Amino acid sequence: MIKVGIVGATGYTGVELLRLLATHPQARVTAVTSRKDAGTPVAAMFPSLRGHVDLAFSTPEDARLTECDMVFFATPNGIAMNEAAQLLAAGVRVIDLAADFRIRDQAEWEKWYGMTHGAPQLLEDAVYGLPEVNREAIRGARLVANPGCYPTAVQLGFLPLIEAGVIDAATLVADCKSGVSGAGRKAEVHALLAEAGDNFKAYGVAGHRHLPEIRQGLARAAGAPVGLTFVPHLTPMIRGIHATLYARLTQDTDLQALFESRYANERFVDVLPAGSHPETRSVRGANTCRIAVHRPQGGDTVVVLSVIDNLVKGAAGQAVQNMNLMFGCDEQAGLAQVPLLP
Ligand SMILES: NC(=O)C1=CN([C@@H]2O[C@H](COP(=O)(O)OP(=O)(O)OC[C@H]3O[C@@H](n4cnc5c(N)ncnc54)[C@H](OP(=O)(O)O)[C@@H]3O)[C@@H](O)[C@H]2O)C=CC1
Ligand SMILES: CC(=O)N[C@@H](CCC(=O)OP(=O)(O)O)C(=O)O
Q: Ligand 1: which atom is nearest the Cα of residue 60?
């Protein structure tokens, strides 16, 4: 059994880890932390986990994390970078669901995240946890940087086109919409029902911190820098990301065949039949990215539609997928959920 600790287990991605790991045949959660709710039984705070999790939250200091085999940080940015080295030295493997180890370039990270990096010596060893790109490196990793939610949906959508070199990678556009759980469980005015409900707005147009992460991943695939306009929007739904991606084709290609062959062996990426329009509810609660590729009126613009559940393939599900790779488990262990509909 893999002994698992979750730092930040009262947040949305932490609770999602608990839900997914409850059915994992080879993992057992042994430590869950919360500073504010230390002492509270998990099932008292989250009745959905009654009968599945028999633990109480403890402070990070009391949680005996070094006795775990695997620790997930489901915490805000800037926490794991100060804790990971000590755990790694004790032989614990670490997955950070936040952004501390996602950007290779320390100065770039510090610019976008507005803080000094606490563990620059770990940046080179950290593996970016997008299995569809980095599977072999993740298998051997001790520290995994779990990708952001928007970056997962956007990269999976653009990758087949970029790898095949059939688009102009200098003029990419990613028009993305997220549900409100993407903002986390902390109390914030903009996420209140009366603010976010019955409303729709863009944000971060001048520059969102996922921009350098997406650019880094796509540039690696392209072998050269890419140009990307990324505009996130907040939609009044709870879970889900819908990314509408635009690129200019530079050569005539069978796009449907290209996407189908790129993801033929990927269990968590589903390329829909030509002409499809994927819906966020078709992946609700599941670790699946569903993709459709279009070429409107046969012109030179390719439109890719990519949907994920931000809390699953966009966070906790992808983290469990990465853990499975790191520990040699079946990649689908704990991740066989059928999406919840309606
Ligand atoms: N929500 C989403 O869709 C996605 C989130 N992420 C990232 O995952 C991380 C977690 O997100 P989410 O679950 O939404 O966040 P939440 O705000 O819902 O939860 C944060 C958790 O971290 C704990 N925490 C906060 N500060 C500290 C600290 N200084 N030390 C230890 N624990 C702390 C909180 O508990 P307490 O304060 O009681 O200790 C809480 O359990 C974030 O970095 C987020 O950006 C990534 C992809 C998608
Ligand atoms: C709707 C919403 O607010 N979404 C968050 C992104 C999700 C997130 O948690 O960011 P990371 O993946 O980098 O951790 C935002 O735009 O800040």
A: 31
